[in-house]
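queue> holo job accepted (protoporphyrin IX containing FE)
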Amino acid sequence: MSLAAISSSSTTYWYLTRSTGAVALILLTLVVVLGVIDVSRLSSDFWPRFITDSLHRRVSLLAVVFLGVHIVTAVLDTYAPIGLWDALIPFHSSYRSLWLGFGAIAFDMLLAVMVTSILRARIGRRAWRAVHWLAYGCWPIAVLHGLGTGTDVKQVWMLAIDAVCVISVVGVVMLRMSSLSTLSRAVRFSAIALPLAFAVGLIVWLPGGPLAAGWAARAGTPASLIANHATQAVTR
Ligand code: HEM
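queue> job finished
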């Protein structure tokens, strides 16, 4: 197969969307973990804060690069009707609208964080910090997007990636909360209960959701695509 044929192949885009999605999720998880470590002042002489800071920034940039490729290849892949607007406007797509919509929300939140980081000197530290908290909110939404949209959700390696990402974030948030004596018990309890409830919710939902038969139709894959799949033995 010529290079041109390979690069225009829908299957190549499909593989690229899936692999960059998985890498983007891992990097986003790392960004959140490093961010929590940073604000927790969990750094020491052995691991000074500037290293966490610089890693946090570099990994964020890398996550955005992978996310860019993830979105462009999803749009170029002709199998599913996904346009550029679907990446920006939540629930606009006719393909798995809810689950792709979560991806668009996560992406919009990240864009807001990026823009305010660039304008940090102009908008002031308080406003920048307020928007920066969005990055934490976009993480569980991105996890739901990956589970609801991804082809690889049933693969052991993808489940392992999802599990490691969820355990890392829940673990580091719990560590952060246990090190904060200044917060009230109610705030500490809810900050620990929320991520734990998210993890338990996933464990309860997955077997009857994306891991169960017929998820493609229930997730909102257009009936014509499912029919094509059945009659033409499409290899996806
Ligand atoms: C923070 C934002 C996002 C993250 C972290 C993310 C991550 C992921 C992950 C982990 C998967 C599952 C991959 C697999 O199962 O192999 C996935 C699937 C997918 N994502 Fe995203 N995504 C994001 C935003 C978006 C946006 C804005 C779009 C819109 C174009 C998009 C389009 C897709 C598509 C079409 C799939 C399904 C690919 C397949 O056929 O398996 N994602 N994403």
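queue> The pocket of protoporphyrin IX containing FE is lined by residues 14, 17-18, 21-22, 24-25, 28, 67, 70-71, 74-75, 80, 82, 86-87, 100, 103-104, 106-107, 110, 138, 142, 145-146, 149-153, 158 (CB under 6 Å).
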